[in-house]
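Practice problem: predict the structure.
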Amino acid sequence: MEFLTEWLTNIILFILMAIVIDMLLPNSSMQKYAKMVISLLLIVVILNPIFSLFRTDPDVIFEKLTKNGQVQSNEIKNQLNSEKKEIQASQQAYILEQMAVQLEKNAEGRFTSDKYKIDRVEVSSDSQLKTEKDLSKHAEVSVFLKPASEKTVQAVAPVEINTDRSYQSMQEREKKETGEVREQLAGIWEISPDKITVHIEGGERSGNE
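Answer:
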């Protein structure tokens, strides 16, 4: 495209120059010869790209054409790969979201706890998930719990002196409770407890550490 633009520019400039010369020349026999010379030069300017083509090594021309084609082909491939990855990422996010919703529905009515209820479920994975078997093998499930009622909050938050011993006892109790939750949910969802991480509102998480 750049070569064609340069060629047309040269032709236009030469024609303008020829018009100026023709206007400056007096009406005489010399004007006739000048027009003939200008016409011949115009033909040379027009045919110059063809002469350049014959002077250029055909291998060089083919290499340039091939190189440009490869560059465009690589750009198209990179763009397609980028779009493909974006589509796969959005599909993966949708699948994980749907699996989390399904797990939460499966736990409704089957998960029993006097102190906690499921607030939300999140599923994450570095691999492509398509079936429930993939979920049990490659996914990590995060379960967020919240108190079952306002009364529960009051019951689990008594006023006491926060000594190291009481804090350690509270941690052990919470770890035991979350362990029981993990075991119960693992049985409901038929996945390994190691794949489940439990988060309690206002407490620490307990999972596959």
